[in-house]
Amino acid sequence: MSMIIGSEVLCWLLLAAIFIVIEIISLGLTTIWFAGGAFVAAIAALCGANLVVQIILFVVVAVALLAFTRPWAIKHLDSKTEKTNVEALVGQNAVVIEEINNIKETGRAKINGMEWTARTKNDGEVIQEGYVAHILEIQGVKLIVEKADEDKLTEEIISEV
After folding, report:
1. Which of 31, 78, 134, 148 could staple 19 via S-S, CB 3.0–4.6 A?
2. pLDDT digits (tens, 9 = 90+) for 17-46
3. Domain 85-153 belongs in CATH node 3.40.50.150
4. Could you tell me if 127 and 156 are in contact, meaning their C-beta atoms sit under 8 angstroms apart?
5. Do 42 and 82 touch, CB atoms closer than 8 A?
6. CA angle at residue 67 from 66 to 71, to 5 degrees?
């Protein structure tokens, strides 16, 4: 009898270890709660509970941990990463310093003192020099933009950019 209980404990601990390894690989805050359920089931097996009780404890504890502690953990363990470098440019405006025309394969824009090759999202759209372009995304070393709602900028503002 003690051999069966010992093997059940080992199985639950092995299952808990597998869940922990999966959590380390995925970092999704999902399988760690099942590891907790497996530990509780291992303790139940160590105390002599039958397999049905162990499985019920595993499921109840895992689901309870997942439902009640995961939202809290996600809220408090979120890394709150800030966009840096190139990612921070998306959503900002740039000044067009050379007409952006996908068909002619021309276009340059300036933002934060740096010049970028620029293309519009839609091939038919042309943005004249001196206008403001809204940055939608960055593909490699190219800004993908659309014309912003702002009017043409003055030479004074362009020289400051």
Report:
1. 31
2. 998 999 888 877 778 889 999 999 999 999
3. no
4. no
5. no
6. 90
